[in-house]
Amino acid sequence: MMKFRDCWALRLEKVERILAEALPGRHEEPKLLHEAMRYSTLEGGKRLRALLAMAACEAVGGDLKKTGGFAAAVEMVHAYSLIHDDLPCMDDDDMRRGKPTNHRVFGEAVAVLAGDGLLTQAFLELARMPEKYGISAETTVRVVEELAQAIGSLGMVGGQVVDILSEGKEISGETLEYIHSHKTGALFTAALRGGALLGGCSERQLELLTIYGENFGLAFQITDDILDEVGDSSQTGKAVGSDREAGKQTYPHLYGLERSRELARECVQACLDALEEFPAQAWFLRELAKFVLIRES
Amino acid sequence: MMKFRDCWALRLEKVERILAEALPGRHEEPKLLHEAMRYSTLEGGKRLRALLAMAACEAVGGDLKKTGGFAAAVEMVHAYSLIHDDLPCMDDDDMRRGKPTNHRVFGEAVAVLAGDGLLTQAFLELARMPEKYGISAETTVRVVEELAQAIGSLGMVGGQVVDILSEGKEISGETLEYIHSHKTGALFTAALRGGALLGGCSERQLELLTIYGENFGLAFQITDDILDEVGDSSQTGKAVGSDREAGKQTYPHLYGLERSRELARECVQACLDALEEFPAQAWFLRELAKFVLIRES
Known about the structure:
CATH superfamily of chain A: Farnesyl Diphosphate Synthase
Number of helices of chain A: 16
Largest sheet of chain A: 2 strands, antiparallel
Oligomer: homodimer
Strand content of chain A: under 5%
């Protein structure tokens, strides 16, 4: 079995290539818009959502190649959400992944529209799955529905609203979990479910991957908060304590560092438990869950 | 034949009902977000895009009832585009349809996210067409593709970017036409094409309706510019000359009022010409084209 890191690197390369091809080129009009869309989507990020989609497809015995369009779509959605989150009227961030945020480079108006363009392009890429990846129309519609539901007002966008409205306030652990399960968890889970659907999964597998996704998202968010407190800013790409300073509620603040680390470990264990019935092909999903605990960025 | 205005009123009512049902309710969390989404989508507007979709379906002999989800989706897309267009970093408008703009009521952050939520909800509504409206998965995928292409970075969003970048500059008639054909025309055309596809149209009909759509969009934009110059602000809901003052290039400014009126008439004639091969059922489309010339808001 190829080592996890090598396999990751290979898959990452594939995702970058698919994304670069799926986005309109820099020379297509309006050039500034397409430059802005590419700036925030290409050459950056761990591609966790694309990797989860691919790994879920693999875990249910599907053909990895079928996930190309969907993997690109979830990364475009992720990029759009970051651009809008970073806007002055939202988190007002200047840096992202170690480089200036979209609106700092292209201005606020173009940044809003680059986000809009990426969200739309994600659905366009899904609609092209039958033609480009041989996916059936039925599965395509199902995947569009899964993604739209996960990232809409009852999902990711809803989580972002509650996050913004909670800024500077003392919030309960329940609200914090609502924010993260919606803002971050929903897209992770949709990536897994979409990938599994493209791989021809059973309903039972879909349920188990949903449990994996929810726990993966939570573990990811807790470790994000921990990294914000104690991480190396040269690795995370943002200043230490920036969430706390922005008045954001975090797990270490609410539960302390040690209990937060324990919570993250419990979530990762729940991920591994959810995969127990899966065959050896689920190895990448297993490694991804374990990776969350040791990540440095 | 039922008179145009009566039929319009009936269809309008139907669109309002479908939209009110398709959007998450005011009492669903996050309530403020859903209130914001509903505020800018319900009880307002002429519903031209929904009416075009319905009329195109009717014109090709299709069943009007099949267009429900799609009609709601195009109106959600329209509402999202207005919310984002009105933002301080874009056109910075305080009033829309005679009431305060979304960000004036809900704040900028929620306004951006309400727009994002509406765009996503539009695609969710399309994905539900098989289940809710008995549309085949193949047609659903085709309609998702049509809409995403029309409103993305090579369509509506692209038009908005060029519009923003042109503000306060002298631009050519060619650029002005680019802006409008993308910013306004693309969604009109997609509404027509989607409606026709749902009605089971032929490729020839699709082509003709595209010509209708392009000319309809142009006529609409020219009369919009004329109304901005000479309209009754109690009808248009915005101050006379507000586009001009915002440094926007307009048709009357570029060609004069008389030539602009003539251009609009020529476009409407082109709409009617495109419908020549269509049967009597295309009557509503014909009336809609003629309406553009006499509208007061």
